[in-house]
Please model this.
Amino acid sequence: GAAGAGAGLGLAAAREIARAHGGDVEILDGDPRGALVRATLPV
Model:
């Protein structure tokens, strides 16, 4: 698909996977040009 198009389902899936492994995914900035996303996982 086109850049910028989508329903955000990838982030929801990433968050579920991260949480299943004891981590999380956060959206830190919702700039109109894109988003800053942090994924954390325990090591």
